[in-house]
Amino acid sequence: MPRTNADTLTFTDFQFDPKLQEGLDAMGFSKPTPIQEKAIPVIMANRDLIGCAQTGTGKTAAYVLPVINKMIRNDHRHLNTLIIVPTRELAQQIDQQIEGFGYFTGVSSIPVYGGGDGATWDQQKRALEHGADIIIATPGRLIALLAGDSVDLSRLQHLILDEADRMLDMGFFEDILKIIGYLPKQRQTLLFSATMPPKIRQLAQRILHEPEEITLALAKPAAGVLQQAYVVYDRQKPELLKHVLKTYPWNSAILFASRKETVKQLDRAFAKSNFPARAFHSDLEQAEREELMRAFKNKQIKLLIGTDVLSRGIDVEGISLVINWDVPPDPEDYVHRIGRTARAETTGTAITFVNEEDQRKFSYIEKLIEREVPKVALPESLGDGPAYQPELKRKSAFRGGGNGRRKFSGKRSR
Predict the structure, then answer these.
(1) Which of 136, 223, 315, 355 has the most CB atoms less than 10 A away?
(2) CA distances (Å), origin 149, targets 128, 143, 145
(3) CATH code for 11-215?
(4) How far is CA 259 from the centre of its chain?
(5) How many CA atoms lie within 13 Å of 249's alpha carbon, on the beta-carbon side?
(6) What does the pLDDT look like over 2-22, one tens digit per residue?
(7) Which CATH fold would you assign to the domain 225-382?
(8) Which residue, 90, 290, 116, 117, is CA-closest to 278?
(9) What share of the chain has pLDDT > 90, as a percent?
């Protein structure tokens, strides 16, 4: 790569195979993002890698492009790459990106995930038996297929763990180790995570070999996000939500809540008002989830309601407004929630409702992002809200952990 100046670096400087470069040109890829600029040379040099970068930074292309480039220059094609992800939605999104490049390169991929019926299981099993270059899988379904001898990973060359922190949060640590037991020891392993808690370090030490490490934009919101907060009583939230949706300019929005039960309650409230909003949660059938996501991408549904799992599992352009019905349990989840807007150097607005119990949690978020989020006065029709006094101890706002890592009360719904 003759040029290294970030202002002049283009994808042609990576000297990809002409077929891959043709695809990049046709799809409008010209200048790499920072994570792509730093990760691609490391991966092409066959080094193991830990990449710490939040969603929306282009990390999928950062690992997919060099892997495809190596693959199409190899005459002996077989199951080459396994990508493990936490959710079916992310598996589908990565598969769609690979499918775009596959049009030009001939590389094939299969998304493997649970939640479907018996026909889905049979379809995935047959597809694996007929072969593919890349598998994108959630841990549970992949383990089931491995147990049934439906997939041969003996010649695998690349293992990629995407959103590793979310997978560990969801309890997949042992599942990942079990999957790795099926893999050849001689392979290139890439681990991408938005955060680097101790358990991620522990996992990396067990499965990576002398990895390079790249850390970019750790837990910092995009510059294009206008962040604001309302300090509010719970009883004021419904009317405040109506005010926000009516007052702020938006054409596509996500409303986040920390509990699945709250998501369902909000869904019922919007249904009574005939507002074009729908809830996205784990109780829906797979076909319902896919149809819901298509409708949201096509702007047939203007407002999507979901928990923090949605903050990692959705990649939709044009979301201009994010509303936090409550403060998320973990400060990093706030960054992922508001990261659904202002993607790809666009702008957007993120509004958070902060009740009395959530004030201390919100102050930890402000510490993490190293800025104070402006507190907006409530509309006069709602009256006064509580004073913002995060230094006061409040019930259920915070539990201190003995390991130096703060743990907030409130269980996550997935």
Answers:
(1) 136
(2) 10, 10, 6
(3) 3.40.50.300
(4) 18
(5) 4
(6) 444 445 789 999 999 999 999
(7) Rossmann fold (3.40.50)
(8) 290
(9) 49
